[in-house]
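Before the break, one more example. Copy the sequence into your notebook; we will annotate it together after we see the structure.
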Amino acid sequence: MSKHAATVPFITVQLAPSDPRALYRQLYDALRIAILDGRLAAGCQFPASRALARQLGVSRFTVVSAYEQLLAEGFIHGTVGSGTFVSAELPGVGRDRDRADPASAANWRQPHLSHRGLHLAATRLTALPEDGSPRAFRPGQPALDQFPAAIWARIAARLYRHPARALLTYGDIAGYRPLREAIAGYLRGARAVVCDPEQVVIVSGAQQALDLAVRVLLDPGDPAWVEDPGYPGARAALQGAEAMVVPVPVDAEGLDVAKGAHLQPDARLAYVTPSYQYPLGVTMSLARRLALLDWARSVGAWILEDDYDSEFRYAGHPLAALAGLDTGSQVIYMGTFSKVLFPALRLGYLVVPSAVVEAFVRARAVVGRHAPTFEQAVLAEFISGGYFARHIRAMRNLYQERQAVLVESAKSDLQGLLHVPSSGAGMHLIGWLDPGGDDRAAASCAAVLGIEVPPLSQHVLSASVPPGLLLGYAALEPKEIRAGIRVLARALRA
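Here is what the structure looks like once it is written out:
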């Protein structure tokens, strides 16, 4: 073959000493691309390593290293030093595109996404800027400036200085046992959710909790109730799993169970935020909670309870969770530490009935094995040491004060533009525009001035809801709230 193969007299390659890649890697990359796009045709003989090294002004070792990498990957064949040729077996290599076989081109098929992949690609969540930094008035952002970072760092430093062997190997798929025990203890006292640590499954945030629950509980095409308006992330998880999303209206008492039963009586799942409905902020009444549980028992449906910020109730104690009323093992309870501590801590949890624990744990192994063990260990000590409860108490008082500043500033500067009533809980308020207003246009005008106020209509599927804007206040100091309201007023006047 070597007697008849065309020999490349020289290879034009630009090697840059300033490139962070090693010289051999630059040469390898350039030759690999030239082979793949056909500039170095199949069967073509490479120059001898010494000759190419002289041509490029590099050591022979650099050229030999690049050749050996190409040889190992099958791009070339032969023996370095006795003849090196471009492999003929590579599909598509050496073809002249202008003389390509029309029949081959006609038979070529574009790889395509799966049905689930298409659904996932079509879903859209609210995208944050790359830095994700708090700004007026982004919802769901906690007061990062008040997080007890020194305490967290002290716990983490001690664990890192003398790490237990269990923290350095693969961990429990369901989660770090001390953290699961701490969560179970906290939920019993704070949320009236009676559960064993074995029922707690640690996940990487609320969105993974949603995705995992939907994967385990629903088949494609299964109907599922969602609140309307409601949390876009839940809707996206259901759509990604090819479930049939059934929007159920929300009123002053929360999800309208009777309406849901009329729309889709045999739904397989209902997703709810009963403690502080997202985004309207209403609390599901006891009558509605009991009705929802009765419906689920009667049809054999699941209830997915998202308790995303129930800790922040300013009048009285936090309400008992829906899972605390469940006697039929119908409720899957989910919580997250992103809003009560900090968003970068991608840790959340599910509390599942004993009968389906094994199914959830095995599914958890498939979607990510387990969350980082060190962060789980730090959080476990943060909770068991009493720092978590202390931080929540402090933030409850702080957020109540910041909400009062927001309401006061709105009354002063947004009179006639936006009505912002107070609430007894939560980390955001709804600002109501006049009927007939356009909340998307208002949000766009505010964004031009650097103010982030998601429109309420963005959370609506089919319900008839007045136009409004979501105003997050928890992450903002009073001076930032007042300044943000003044800028928002200018945007709304525009």
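The chain has three domains: 1-97, 146-387, 390-493. Confidence is low (pLDDT under 50) at residues 92-100. Try to locate both features in your own notes.
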